[in-house]
Amino acid sequence: MLGAGRLRGLGTRAAPLWPGRAGSRGLGARIRARGVSTSWSPVGAAFNVKPQGRRLDLFGERRGLFGVPELSAPEGFRVAQENALRKADLLVQRVCSMAPGPQTVLIFDELSDSLCRVADLADFVKIAHPEPAFREAAEEACTSIGTAVEKLNTNVELYRSLQKLLADKKLVDSLDPETRRVAELFMFDFEISGIHLDKEKRKRAVDLNVKILDLSNTFLMGTNFPNKIEKHLLPEHIHQNFVVAGNHVIVDGLHAESPDDLVREAAYKIFLHPNAGQLRCLEELLSNRDLLAKLVGYCTYSHRALQGTLAQSPETVMQFLEKLSDKLSERTIRDFEMIRGMKMKLNPQNSELMPWDPPYYSGVIRAERYNIEPSLYCPFFSLGACMEGLNTLFGRLLGITLYAEQPAKGEVWCEGVRKLAVVHESEGLLGYIYCDFFQRAGKPHQDCHFTIRGGRLKEDGDYQLPVVVLMLNLPHPSRNLPTLLTPGMMENLFHEMGHAMHSMLGRTRYQHVTGTRCPTDFAEVPSILMEYFANDHRVVSQFARHYQTGQSLPKNMVSRLCESKKVGAAADMQLQVFYAALDQIYHGKHPLTASTTDILRETQEKFYGLPYVPNTAWQLRFSHLVGYGAKYYSYLMSRAVASMVWKECFRRDPFNRTAGERYRREMLAHGGGKEPMLMVQGMLQKCPSIDDFVSALVSDLDPDFETFLMDSE
Ligand SMILES: [Zn+2]
């Protein structure tokens, strides 16, 4: 029912946690910032202007994190977690004693909601809260709810209540598609614990799950572990690029951007030097995953992992990767020739192209051909301008406005976190996005979207509004300077907002499938689609204004940026195809036909093109094998769908309201409650083939004719 490690949600509280507070600041007013000559809309101002002395709210009621009353102090986590567990017990009793029907699914979802609302919130707080006491309390809550979930997953009585429903064909046929899908998803989560097997096999499944979890953690730690080498084995002049400790040089990464060929080569060979323990760990992880999949009834781990996804089967994934590889190969060869040419120009004595070269030399070519120095762009991308851009875009496409609200005392975990109410022109408030955008010590570096609370239809007919956090790592504004984003940061902001809008606009009956809780290969579609908007000059020009002069970003600067991204992009994509194929083979038929290193060499030769370097084992650094096991292809496939949606529906007019409404209705509204291929079909109004997926990805690499015309003007 509730996936290991990733909880899905159950339950409501008597009092509404999020009473709608209408008062958004300065609605409709133009705010004039001190020292800034440009005027911004309210949402732009909220992000560009430093709050002028936070309103001192001495007498206001302290409301607790995310408005959850218990969470005004770390101890509150214990209360919240006890309440959730108590409620879960009642719901288990209720569902086990009633006749099977649609209500069964509703209660399962409520059970999941009551646990997830604490666990998801705690999952976020344990990594993001600046105060250790809060982080520790949250960590404890995660552990205790995790244990409870494990117990529920092996609760035979609970399982039978769902099985009775799914075994009754007449009942199943009477369910609406979303309810049926959610019932099947809960069942799918149960079955990985082997609950449907006899006692002996069930015990075996539980043991395998524990072992896999252990191996996953050990492997993940090993992917980051530095390697060391005796100092005298490396030329002295490159020691300074690494950490030197006593007689050793320590290498903790690939140094892929270093301009010195020798530094990159040394880093590659040392960092990727195989570690026997890590190798054993990976092999054991893969074979245990295979055993578990077979035990619960699948022929490979990949077959299990891909059930219910857009791709649906490992065969489709391999077909997709092979076709993509074929279609890319000529472009990749051209990319490699171009990169080799640059290497020869800069380093004539040693111009053989090696796997540690492409990222660096592509960067050199990009900088030489296109004048895309980030400092030229940043002044046009103040955070406020970008937020205004998003607000305008969502307004025109979907009739949605973002309002900056003043959070209550204790509601946010850190000064500088902004709260956005997402409001539809006729439907009203849809949900809340907390924007934790600025750098601080100890904050994770990755940009990320967190679901804090999923949307769902409650028993009383009200809709539980979704709540999410977007976490970025932007520089702080100062008194005279708003936060300025590089083009890459701007694109990331759009990407993460794509996830947030998926969460806000999902209107699923069940929180188990709210917003981004959908198959992995579909989850990145809404966010990658936003990248297409972020790279379109018609979209960019309506918000990118110089923060001092108000001047718009010239069109050719936008085009130059887009074209620069295509430098080496075929070779890049080819590398991703190689990784995805490797992941498929590792999680395919067992026993594997050769060692993981031999498979890496063969797959690299077939799917990439640059030679395998003896005595290296890149797979031991491939951390995504843990989280994405058999689904690493997802990013490529999501990109293919986003590209098709962009071209078919938005490229002609990126502000087209009809297309926006269709996008909301056919894709976003369903979260994970509908089969992904049906959503894609509904959006594109045709059933795309694998060839369509491949063409969409490859055609994005073609240079844009218009840009060349413009540059020659
Ligand atoms: Zn994403």
Question: What does this protein look like?
Answer:
With 713 residues, the protein is α+β, with helices and mostly antiparallel strands. Helix content is 52%, strand content 8%. It contains 28 helices and twelve strands. It has helices spanning 42-48, 76-96, 102-128, 132-153, 156-167, 169-174, 177-191, 199-224, 261-271, 276-295, 301-305, 314-346, 358-369, 374-377, 383-398, 487-505, 520-523, 525-534, 537-541, 555-564, 569-586, 596-607, 624-627, 634-650, 657-666, 676-684, 690-699, 705-711, and strands at 31-32, 39-40, 227-230, 243-245, 248-251, 400-405, 418-424, 428-438, 448-453, 456-457, 463-464, 467-474. The chain has a five-stranded mixed sheet. A hairpin with a 5-residue loop joins strand 10 (456-457) and strand 11 (463-464). Helix 3 (102-128) packs across helix 7 (177-191). The longest helix has 33 residues, at 314-346. 46% of the residues are buried. Zinc ion is lined by residues 495, 499, 524, 527.
